[in-house]
Amino acid sequence: MTVTMSKILGGREGAIGLAVLALLILVILPLSLDLFRLGLVGKYTTYAFVAVSLVLLWGNGGILSLGQGIFFGLGGYLMAMFLKLEASDPISTKIQTTPGIPDFMDWNQLTALPWFWEPFNSLPFTILAILTIPALFAFIIGFAMFKRRVGGVYFAIITQAIALILSILIVGQQGYTGGVNGITDLKTMLGWDIRNDGAKYMLYYVNALLLIGSILLSRYILSSKFGMLLLAMRDKEERVRFSGYDVSNFKIFIFCVSALISAVGGAMFTLQVGFMSPSFVGIVPSIEMVIFAAVGGRMSLIGAVYGTLLVNFGKTMFSETYPELWLFLMGSLFIAVVMFFPNGLAGVWDKYAKRVGFIRRIMEGKGKADNTSADSNTQGAKA
Amino acid sequence: MSITDFVLAVEDLTVSFDGFKAVDKLTMYIDKNELRVVIGPNGAGKTTVLDLICGKTKSTSGSIKFKNQELTKLSEHEIVRAGVGRKFQTPSIYENLSVYQNLEVSYPKGRGVFGSLFFKQTAEVENRVREVAAEILLSDALDMEAALLSHGQKQWLEIGMLLMQDPELLMLDEPVAGMSAKERDQTADLLNRICKNRSVIVIEHDMEFVKKIAHKVTVLHQGKILAEDPMDKVQANEKVIEVYLGH
Q: Which UniProt keywords apply (chain A) (predicted)?
C-alpha cells in the first residue's frame, strides 16, 4: 500500500508540490480574497481540470486534442439540465404557456418536456451521466479514429471540427438546449440554494478537492506502466506496437480519462457560475485550454493548474482595461511559451528555481536524493 | 497450406505496390534454432519480407506460417504475442526513457490497458531486466537516459528489448549498421549466443559479419530468391557475384 501511496504522491518532490498547491487553493486564497475574487478562482480551477486532462493526453500521450471543450461543455450542460429542471417547477413558471418546463422551451413553443430531458429530474442519474456520457462520447470518437490510426494533426483538426459542430448544434437547437444564451437562471440543487455565500464557499472547496483528486488519479496513471507506455508511444509508436501492445486501446483509454476529468470540471463550472452556454464548448475555449496547459507546462499536472490560474488572472486584469488587446496578448503568450519555454512554467521552475540551494534541499530531502530507476519514471508527473 | 516442422514457412508470398511486385512468389523455410541471413542489392525486397512477416505490410497473396499458425490475417501486436520479434533498421528505442525503463516496458506482462495500470514491478521483472542488460553489455548503463547511448549501444538496446519478450523468431534489420569493428565482433558473439534457443533472421550488407554468423544465406534479387546456400557456396555463385557481390 505504501508503494501505491508514494506513487500517487509522486515521491517527495511530488508530494511537496501538491501540498503547496493544496495550501494555496484551500487556505491562502480563501483567506486573502473576497468572495467575488474567490469565485473567479473557483471558475478558473474548473478550467484547470481540462488543463490537467491535457497534461495526460497531450503532454504525456502526445495526442493533441483541440476539442476538450466538448467534454467540459457536456459535463456542464448535463449538470445544467438537472439544475434547470429543478428551477422550472410549475409554481415559479406559472406565467408560462406550459408551466413546469424550462423557460427557453416555452419561448420556443415546446409544450412538453423532451424525452431526453426526463431522466435529468434525478440527481443520481445526472451525476452518473456526467461521469459516463462524455467518456462514452470520447470512446466513440477515439475508437473511430485511433483504430484507423488517425493521429497527430488530423486528430487535432477532427476534434476541433467536432467541437465546432457541437457548439453549432447547441445554438441551432434552441428549444432543446437554450440556444446561444445557454441554460441560465439556475438556483437550487435539491432545494439547496447554490447562489448564497455559504454555498459558494462550499462549492469552491468541493471543486478544489475534486481537482486535487483528479491530480492524484492522473499521478497514479502516469506512475504505472501505462504512464511509461504513454511516453513510449509518444516517442516511438511503431516500436510499442511491435512490442505486442494494441496502441489504439491505450489511446482510447487515456482520451476517455481526459474526457471524464474535463466533464467533472464542466459540471463544477455550472454549479459555481450558475449557467452554461455554448461559448464554453466551441473552438475558442478548447484552444484556450491548450494554452493554459502549455503555459503551465504540458508535462506537469501541477504546473497546468498554475498555468490556468495565471493566464486567467492575466485575462481578467488585462481585459478589464484593454479588452480588445487580450486575444493578441494571449496569442503571443502561446507563441512565446512554445518557442522559449517548451515545458512552460514547470520547465522554468525545474531549470532555475531548483538551483537555489534551499529549494533544492527541501525538494530532495537532506542530501539523500534517491534516484532509483523506479523513482525516475514519475518524472513526468512531478511539478 | 502444408503442415511443417519449420518455425517459419513462407510460401508463394507476393506483395505488389501499384503493380510493382516488391516480393514475388517467395518461398522460404526457417528451421528451429537456425540463424538465416538475407542479403541482396538495394530494392531487392529484404526489408519488405520482414515487414510482411511482422504484419507491417499486408501481403497480396501467399501464406506465412509461424509454427503452423497463419500470420497474414493477424494484426501486428497479435503476431508479436505469437512469438515474433522484429528490430527496425534505424535503432528504434524510447529516447526519453532510461535503459532500464526501455527494457521494462518491453516485458511481456501487463500488455492490456488495465493490465498495465495495475502492473507490479516485481523482483522477477527486475531480474529479467538485469539478465538481459548483461546479455547486451549494458549493465552499467541501466539508469542512463537511452538518448545518451552510442549508436551501437542503441542497436543492442533494441535487441535487448526484443529479448525481453523471449520470441521464438527474431528478425533483425541491419543490426551492425554504423557500428565500430569491435562492436561488430561483440554483436556477432551476441547473435551466436541468442540463436541457441530461437530462430533468427538477419538482413545484413557486411559480408565479413555475415560470414561470422550465418548458418545459411538467402540472396534476394528483385523480389525473388536468387540463391539459398551456405555462405561459401553463395560467394562462389556467379549469378550472385553478378547482381550483388561484384559491386
A: Cell membrane, Membrane, Transmembrane, Transmembrane helix
| Contact (CB<8Å) A242/B80 | yes
> What residues form DSSP beta bridges with B63?
B11
Tell me the ipTM for this assembly.
Answer: 0.91
Given A228, A234, A242, which is nearest B101 (Cβ)?
A228
Specify the amino acid at residue B189.
Answer: D
Site from B76, B138, B145, B164 to mutate, A interface, most A CB atoms within 10 angstroms = B76
Kindly state whether A376 is in contact with chain B, defined as any CB-CB distance less than 8 angstroms: yes
> Per-residue pLDDT tens for B74-101?
999 999 999 999 999 888 999 999 999 9
- Contact check, Cβ <8 Å, A221/B97: no
Q: Does A149 touch chain B (CB under 8 A)?
A: no
Cβ contacts of residue A327 below 8 Å, gap of 6+? Answer: none
A208 to A19, A52, A68, A222, B151: CA distances (angstroms)? 13, 13, 20, 21, 48
Separation between Cα atoms, residue B228 and residue A80, nearest integer Å = 72
- Record: contact A225-B104, CB cut-off 8 A: yes
Q: How far apart are CA B85 and CA A171, in angstroms?
A: 53
d(CA A142, CA A148): 10
Q: Where are the domains of chain A?
A: 11-282+298-304
- Residues A330-373 pLDDT 10s: 888 888 888 888 888 888 888 887 777 777 777 776 544 444 33
- What is the enclosing helix (H) or strand (E) of B97? none
All 3 cell numbers of residue B230?
551456405
Residue A75: is its pLDDT beyond 80? yes
Task: Please count the other Cβ atoms lying within 10 Å of the Cβ belonging to residue B63.
Answer: 17
CATH H-level superfamily of B8-91+166-245? P-loop containing nucleotide triphosphate hydrolases (3.40.50.300)
First to last CA, chain A: 23
pLDDT of residue A379 exceeding 60: no
